Hints:
With 317 residues, the protein is of the alpha/beta class. It is built from 12 helices and 9 strands. It folds into 2 domains: 5-213, Spore Coat Polysaccharide Biosynthesis Protein SpsA, Chain A, CATH 3.90.550.10; 219-316, no CATH class. 46% of the residues lie in helices and 16% in strands. The strands form 2 sheets. The chain has a 5-stranded mixed β-sheet, with helices on both faces. A 4-stranded mixed β-sheet has the order 5-9-6-7. The longest helix is centred in the last third of the chain and has 21 residues, at 223-243.
Amino acid sequence: MNPLVSILVPAHNAGAWIEATLESAVTQTWPHLEVIVVDDGSRDDTLTRARSFAVRQPGRMRVVSQPNSGASAARNHALRLAKGEFIQFLDADDLLAPDKIALQLEALRAAPPLALASGTWGRFQSDPSATRWSDEAVAHARSGVEFLQLHYETGSMMQPGAWLAPRALLDLAGPWDESLSLNDDGEYFARVMLRASVLVPVPAARCHYRSGLAPSLSRRRDDRALVSLHRSVALTTAHLLAADDSARSRAAAVRAWRTLAFELLPDAPTLARSARSAAAVLGGPSIPLGGPAWVAGLACFLGWPLARRLHLLRNRL
């Protein structure tokens, strides 16, 4: 059995990286694949470069465009077009190791239906050979509940390109939430993994995550992004507690809200207060969580917004 894998690439102003990303997709050792690029209203040459690349891959690539609607909308568009039995999401500046998909499919063959494969990911800026690989605590989770507990307890994460999912599982989880602009992947994959029969770690399957880019969505601090971050935590902790309302999960949710309260300062004090209130409602402490001990000490005298501002200022020096 040789299932078709759909590699879905949302792209926005990614002209500098899109060709390398597509090269890593089409050179997978797994031969049965299609690549779908959705250009999300790019203002640079992303669409031109993607179309030029597709001409050299007849029958294997499809490139479409849409008005700028956000990454989640682009991924939903790609999902509607995808024909594969398995889905690989790949951001337009990231790279897949050549055997990434083949290794995960091999592992999934021995797993029950609706199993979700994870892999190893690492950060790089320009040279993928210099990728810094890390052993994330969540990479060892075998269920969605355990993953989310570890995520909030340790701060570890899984980059979206590290997953390989059966299309049937994604259909059960529902579409990407297009109202979210920041941490949309965290909320989406929380739904996916909580519906998975089991998580299957495949450490040898690797994804290179390009970090440190100035226009990266994950670096945004504007009002819309921070509202999205707050809402994504609200949704994800609700997903977790709906699946497992145990003492450990409630403590993990409290930690999520306290960490968010720290992250939102000083730019969004109202949202930060809301996060602290959410932690208190769950029965935990409402003190923001993050940074070195001196920040909490200063907050006792100056308040959390100013203490956090001084913390950020010191980090920039």
